[in-house]
Amino acid sequence: IAAAVEIWARGPAALPPPWEPRTPVLPVEGERNVLVTSALPYVNNVPHLGNIIGCVLSADTFARYCRLRRWNTLFVCGTDEYGTATETRALQEGLSPQELCDRYHALHADIYTWFRISFDHFGRTTTPQQTRIAQDIFQRLLARGFLLQDTLEQLRCESCGRYLADRFVEGTCPFCGYAEARGDQCDKCGKLINAVELQNPQCKLCHGTPVVTPTQHLFLDLPKLEGRLEAWLERTWAAGEWTANARHITRTWLRDGLKPRCITRDLTWGTPVPLDGFRDKVFYVWFDAPIGYLSITANYTDQWERWWKNPQQ
Asked: What sequence ranges are listed for the domain Methionyl/Leucyl tRNA synthetase (predicted)?
């Protein structure tokens, strides 16, 4: 505090010169290296103030603070572009999913530029780097025995001639009776839902009644990871860096026991699954999208692993 008072009395001339980032910004031995991300905004709509205040503005404020502290700081973000919500919006607007993503990515980028959000790089998830890194992670999981293959009963709309992904079907929640539950979760009670559990299901595309049909899918074997996850959580909870809400939600998942989670979908818009027998499917967006943080960094610099695989720095 005394030093701050002294510098304040001496005026701006006493301040150190502004931090000038190197290009590209990479971790530096012996310096404080900070990687900042904000939640990837979904690409199928126009950002509003709530989106910006909810995650982008707070991350920008922190990134600016880090730079003022002269810490070596990289701030990345980008649009999340795969998933059924993109397909749904593209159908509504009469565009292909890629055309829709191109339009809204440019719109997002312009808005954040207008607000002077200080991203070092604002990218997107529909890139060759995203495909390469997501498929590499998948192959590593497969080689280590963390994937299962099983038959999944899925809703199929015979009128549309397609299996219905989670967001292409709505119905009544089997837990609380909410009449507009989605095929992946209920927005009223928060419960995760398997689409075939919905009562009175309806295809969102043609409003017809889908039928239950078996199809093969790949699952992440979460029960095999449960013991290691619990041990890691105990260590990180002890460090005190989790919010009370985050702890409560995580404990609830563990209390109920982790279940295998399906990571593939019968869609065409997404990262292709590189495995015989599943090449007509894509990865579920919640397997694929978090990898966007890595791939966006990889599109910024080919030395991206120095940020993401370098805990000592």
From this structure: 34-311
Tokens in use for 24? 């590209």
Q: Is the pLDDT at 26 greater than 80, yes or no?
A: yes
Distance CA(206)–CA(290), nearest Å, equals 31
- Does 33 share its domain with 124? yes
What are the pLDDT digits (tens) for 60-82?
999 999 998 889 999 999 999 99
Give dist(CA 169, CA 215) in Å, integer: 17
Res 240: pLDDT: 80
Q: For residue 177, what is the domain's CATH number?
A: 2.170.220.10
Q: How many domains does the chain have?
A: 2
**Claim to verify: residue 101 and residue 39 sit in the same structural domain:** yes
